[in-house]
């Protein structure tokens, strides 16, 4: 599938190391006060053993290089990361559109201090539905749960889910 000059495809196990690198670069760029939380080996393990085993992962490529990744599980966006140099070029929106095509509702978590991510999600129809003090996430960082529903679908009751560090 192609969008705005990007090639978007389902990721395979062989892509997980590259997905981990995209995650770390984007996370550390957006949240420098949390940089270094995990080692590169831990990131690779997380993508190979946890994300690949439990999620559907899509990647956005510019040529052969992976520039963005989205991990989906049920109606949750578990991860959405775009390399800093590829941001503001439609990569994140294209990946989010893939997720929206397959469901009537999506949820995700993002940190309250990540104003850029919050603006990105809100501009794409997500609304904040819950705020926490961060005591339930690994980073101990206050976060927000966002919900998107297809325009012709009512929002249903909140339910518990995994955290996303977008």
Automatic annotation (TrEMBL):
Q: Which residues form the N-acetyltransferase domain?
A: 6-152
Cross-referenced SUPFAM superfamilies: Acyl-CoA N-acyltransferases (Nat)
**Where on the tree of life does the source sit, at the highest rank?**
Bacteria
Tell me the Gene3D superfamilies matching this sequence.
3.40.630.30
A Gene Ontology MF term for this entry? acyltransferase activity, transferring groups other than amino-acyl groups
InterPro entries xref list: Acyl_CoA_acyltransferase (IPR016181), GNAT_dom (IPR000182)
Q: Which UniProt keywords apply?
A: Transferase
- Positions with biased composition (Basic and acidic residues): 133-144
Q: Name one Pfam family in it.
A: Acetyltransf_10
Region annotation (Disordered) ranges? 131-166
Is Isomerase one of the keywords UniProt gives this record? no
Return the protein name.
Answer: GNAT family N-acetyltransferase
The source organism is Bradyrhizobium uaiense
């Amino acid at each position: 599938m192609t969008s705005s000059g990007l090639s978007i495809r389902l990721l395979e196990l062989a892509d997980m190391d590259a997905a981990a690198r995209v995650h770390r670069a984007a996370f550390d760029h957006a949240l420098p006060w949390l940089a270094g939380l995990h080692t590169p080996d831990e990131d690779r393990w997380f993508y190979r053993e946890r994300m690949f085993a439990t999620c559907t992962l899509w990647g956005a490529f510019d040529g052969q290089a992976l520039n963005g990744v989205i991990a989906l599980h049920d109606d949750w966006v578990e991860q959405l990361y775009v390399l800093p140099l590829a941001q503001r070029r439609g990569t994140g929106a294209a990946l989010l559109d893939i997720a929206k095509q397959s469901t009537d509702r999506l949820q995700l978590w993002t940190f309250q201090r990540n104003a850029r991510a919050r603006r990105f999600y809100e501009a794409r129809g997500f609304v904040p539905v819950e705020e926490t003090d961060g005591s339930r996430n690994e980073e101990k960082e206050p976060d927000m749960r966002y919900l998107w529903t297809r325009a012709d679908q009512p929002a249903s009751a909140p339910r518990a889910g995994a955290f996303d560090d977008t």
